[in-house]
Amino acid sequence: MNLNEPTISNMAFMIDEIKSKLKMATAAAMQPSHFDLKRYEDIKDIYEVIASKPNFSISEVEALVSELGKLRNQ
């Protein structure tokens, strides 16, 4: 998968991977359709941070989820 291409399917893949890696309790509330493709690079940045670490502290998870929340469609 070439994540350098800003496509809806790539964004959906990254969102699903983020939810899985962070073991989000509210994962059902975070759907790829909640994000605009214009935010692709921001989501990719968060995805790359999450993919680079094996685990996260509670405060890191909270910060990452907060950033994702800011990127959601209003």
From TrEMBL:
UniProt xrefs under Pfam families: DUF1128
Superkingdom of origin: Bacteria
Record-linked InterPro entries: UPF0435
Identification of the protein by name: DUF1128 domain-containing protein
